[in-house]
């Protein structure tokens, strides 16, 4: 049995959405953040990293978004949300799947932390980070001009990795998407997906506490 330990307003939206795309089955346990935004102590005890997401699969604990999403995409639903080695778009799939947490999210998080810590906007580190983010967003925009989804013609787990950066994350920092029309159109397509909508009712920032 798969249990998703969902931390409020966090990356654990990803596995919930993935399992909704696949039609389950899974269980969910909800956890809150403290006023400092840290995860509540019970969440910290689930894994030594103390960060979201964390899932358990038949008693085995898995943390870190990429590992969690790759595990579920490969092991569940006949692997239909993972692109297989040898497929023509395998390299694109790998790139976007990993780019989300390895490159894009660290820059966006730096901006969130800088804002929260009152770092001046003209701080050199902050400016460097903003330049990198702009370069990354231009790359995202170019990709979405070539293909409807990050890995190509089909929706895959790479979309699940990428989307969180542009949705709930933006509650924490004002990432302006005005200059990225293809990205905005993509997000509209994503937000229209029934499974995404279900996952938001279950685990989104305005979740319906009566659902799961
Ligand atoms: N790269 C990690 C980042 C994990 C992470 O920082 N998660 C945040 C939530 S989105 C968190 O747990 N924050 C609360 C805390 O660290 O107490 C991943 O993708 O799993």
Could you provide a short overview of the structure?
This protein is of the alpha+beta class. Helix content is 49%, strand content 9%. It has two domains: 2-81 and 196-203, Glutaredoxin (3-Layer(aba) Sandwich), CATH 3.40.30.10; 90-192, Glutathione S-transferase Yfyf (Class Pi), Chain A, domain 2, CATH 1.20.1050.10.
Topology, please?
Blueprint: E1 2-7, H1 13-22, E2 27-31, H2 41-44, E3 54-57, E4 60-63, H3 65-75, H4 90-116, H5 124-146, H6 157-163, H7 181-191, H8 194-203
Helix pairs in contact: 1-3, 1-8, 4-5, 4-6, 5-7
Residues 7, 10-11, 38-39, 50-53, 64-65, 101 line the site of glutathione (GSH).
Walkthrough of the structure:
It is a single chain. The chain has 212 residues and is an alpha+beta fold. The chain folds into two domains: 2-81 and 196-203, Glutaredoxin; 90-192, Glutathione S-transferase Yfyf (Class Pi), Chain A, domain 2. It has helices at 13-22, 41-44, 65-75, 90-116, 124-146, 157-163, 181-191, 194-203; strands at residues 2-7, 27-31, 54-57, 60-63. A four-stranded mixed sheet has the order 2-1-3-4, covered by helices on one side. Helix 1 packs across helix 8 (194-203). It is globular and about 50 Å long. The relative contact order is 0.14. The structure holds glutathione. Glutathione is lined by residues 7, 10-11, 38-39, 50-53, 64-65, 101. Glutathione binds at residues 7, 10-11, 38-39, 50-53, 64-65, 101.
């Amino acid at each position: 049995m798969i249990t998703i330990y969902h931390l409020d307003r966090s990356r654990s939206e990803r596995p919930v959405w993935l399992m909704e795309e696949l039609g389950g089955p899974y269980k969910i346990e909800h956890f809150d953040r403290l006023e400092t935004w840290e995860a509540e102590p019970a969440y910290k005890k689930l894994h030594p990293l103390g960060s979201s997401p964390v899932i358990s699969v038949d008693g085995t604990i898995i943390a870190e978004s990429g590992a969690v999403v790759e595990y579920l995409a490969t092991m569940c639903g006949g692997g239909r949300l993972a692109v297989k080695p040898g497929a023509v778009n395998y390299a694109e799939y790998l790139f976007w799947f990993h780019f989300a947490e390895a490159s894009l999210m660290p820059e966006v998080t730096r901006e969130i932390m800088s804002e929260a810590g009152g770092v001046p906007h003209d701080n050199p580190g902050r400016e460097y980070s903003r330049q990198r983010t702009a370069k990354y967003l231009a790359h995202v925009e170019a990709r979405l001009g070539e293909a409807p989804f990050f890995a190509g013609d089909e929706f895959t787990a790479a979309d699940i990795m990428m989307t969180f950066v542009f949705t709930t994350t933006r509650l924490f920092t004002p990432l302006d998407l005005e200059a990225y029309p293809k990205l905005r159109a993509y997000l509209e397509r994503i937000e229209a997906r029934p499974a995404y909508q279900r996952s938001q009712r279950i685990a989104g920032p305005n979740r319906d506490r009566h659902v799961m």
